[in-house]
């Protein structure tokens, strides 16, 4: 990347639900705010992608051996497209259930191979509101809209369970968005804006669950140092002092600036 | 930075108005969405900072000579704190007007020295709603709130003019947020939530002005390539083809993936 920085990176890898996470009220942007001056949130969301296609770009983005500093954490959020049904409008995106789990395992292994200390967080796909999908298709295509659903909540649930199961097998954290969302009455319209993608409320659920998982895995923003002094710690008459106070020279050696972050999280 | 990426970077350097730009409706998050899959938005906002303090961190973040790939663009958005009045509550942040301009020039020169082709975009501070500031102070401190304003719109305006003037002298683009916002009736409460920081509407003004400036300087998102194929370009039966179609091997050589972006914008 282009800058010498002291901040660790948290990468968001996924499909459109990740790609769109910087829209108004999006979970990615909210995460960037939660980790303000602590970590960089790097969005790598690819609308329409399934795990099979994700595997094709993985080696481009993170070749192994990896020359740079590996991210501190990565969220892997696929399944909504893999679960598209065969013989329906979105069948191009379909990935068979066993292959979905296999691909996810490959993706996780890739990151672990790149950096044994990286925190890998799996996120299972959200539930599907079939009525919402149908209304959305009609709003776009009217009478020409597809008659049969391209996704069902039940099938997507089988993908979510494989994701949860894989996390258990690999002993990594997982957020079961499919189950979590359905625990709230009216989840269909409250959390999903077109039966598949998230409303602001749905984004808030993902944001809060990701925060909780990162906190639980030792990457809480509250425990991370600011990259530079808080303005209240700066002496107006001698501002340079605050910039030297953490054992840091002003020689441009950024690793020395916040040694705790550099050693723990990068 | 930690990843091998093909996306150019757009850095947002500034004070709290930049630091908070990933909150709900924030201009930084909106920019990340506008450049989705085209560029990475890197936020480097430091609440309370003035140009004097910014100079103290510049060499830490972007040492010269710079070892990595320089950002494609940087927005420099200071002045709201430099314009704090002497002898008032926020006087620690005050920077004399001539020094503000001098410091800004140093910051711009630093980036130009790092990379002659970098697009440097100056942003002048927003106007100040003195009544809004007073109400905000009273909401926090009641009768103990400061009696005299710590900033005035008139004084901040003199800083904005120096910023605009410097941009003309250095022949770089500038957004005069101070002037632009005051062209809308009711700007005081419409664009500012506490007399100083931006509402969602205020963020939308900055977002749209930054987009316009980037477009005008040859960095329009519409003209930049996606980092990987759009899902509609992927053949379900032979997905690997789309990942090889731009003269790219699958060898992990990311620079070869999107040669136009690599040569024009990084």
What does this structure look like?
Two copies of one chain form a homodimer. Chain A is an alpha/beta fold and 266 residues long. Helices cover 41% and strands 9% of the residues of chain A. Chain A is built from eleven helices and five strands; from the N terminus they run βααβαβαβααβααααα. Chain A has helices at 16-19, 27-34, 51-61, 97-114, 130-141, 153-170, 177-182, 187-190, 200-216, 239-242, 259-265; strands at residues 9-14, 40-45, 73-77, 119-123, 174-175. Chain A has a five-stranded parallel beta sheet with strand order 2-1-3-4-5, sandwiched between helices. The radius of gyration of chain A is 21 Å and the shape is globular. The two termini of chain A are 14 Å apart. Chains A and B meet through helix 2, strand 2 and helix 3 of A and helix 2, strand 2 and helix 3 of B. Chains A, B: One of its GO terms (molecular function) is hydrolase activity, acting on ester bonds. Chains A, B: Keywords: Hydrolase. Chains A, B: Belongs to the 'GDSL' lipolytic enzyme family. Chains A, B: This is GDSL esterase/lipase.
Which characteristics define this entry?
homodimer; 266 residues; alpha/beta; Rossmann fold; five-stranded parallel sheet; 41% helix; globular; disordered N terminus; GDSL esterase/lipase (chains A, B); hydrolase activity, acting on ester bonds (chains A, B)
Residue fraction in strands of chain A:
5-15%
Total separate domains of chain A: 2
| Gap from first CA to last CA of chain A | 14 Å
According to DSSP, the number of beta strands of chain A is 5
- Supply the number of helical segments of chain A: 11
Low-confidence stretches of chain A: 1-5, 247-266
What form of chain A results from the Cα inertia axes?
A: globular
Q: What order do the strands of the largest sheet of chain A run in, or round the barrel if closed? A: 2-1-3-4-5
Which second-level CATH architecture of the largest domain in chain A applies? 3-Layer(aba) Sandwich
Overall average pLDDT of chain A: 89
- Level of helix content of chain A? 40-55%
Largest sheet of chain A: 5 strands, parallel
């Amino acid at each position: 990347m282009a800058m010498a920085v002291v901040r660790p990176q948290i990468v968001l890898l996924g499909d459109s639900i990740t790609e769109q996470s910087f829209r108004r009220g999006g979970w990615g942007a909210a995460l960037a705010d939660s980790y303000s001056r602590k970590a960089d949130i790097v969005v790598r969301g690819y609308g329409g992608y399934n795990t099979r296609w994700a595997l094709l770009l993985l080696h481009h983005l993170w070749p192994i051996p990896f020359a740079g500093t590996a991210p501190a954490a990565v969220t892997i959020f696929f399944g909504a497209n893999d679960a598209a049904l065969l013989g329906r409008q979105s069948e191009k995106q379909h990935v068979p259930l066993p292959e979905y789990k296999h691909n996810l395992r490959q993706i996780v292994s890739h990151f672990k191979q790149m950096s044994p200390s990286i925190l890998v967080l799996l996120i299972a796909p959200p539930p599907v509101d079939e009525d919402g999908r149908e209304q959305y298709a009609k709003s776009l295509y009217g009478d020409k809209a597809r008659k049969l659903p391209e996704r069902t909540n039940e099938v997507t649930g089988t993908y979510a369970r494989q994701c949860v199961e894989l996390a258990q097998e690999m002993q990594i954290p997982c957020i079961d968005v499919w189950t979590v969302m359905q625990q709230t009455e009216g989840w269909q319209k409250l959390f999903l804006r077109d039966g598949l993608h998230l409303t602001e409320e749905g984004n808030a659920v993902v944001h809060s669950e990701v925060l909780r998982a990162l906190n639980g895995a030792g990457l809480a923003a509250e425990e991370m140092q600011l990259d530079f002094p808080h303005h209240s710690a700066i002496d107006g008459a001698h501002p340079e002092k605050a910039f030297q106070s953490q054992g840091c020279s002003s020689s441009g050696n950024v690793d020395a600036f916040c040694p705790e972050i550099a050693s723990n999280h990068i």
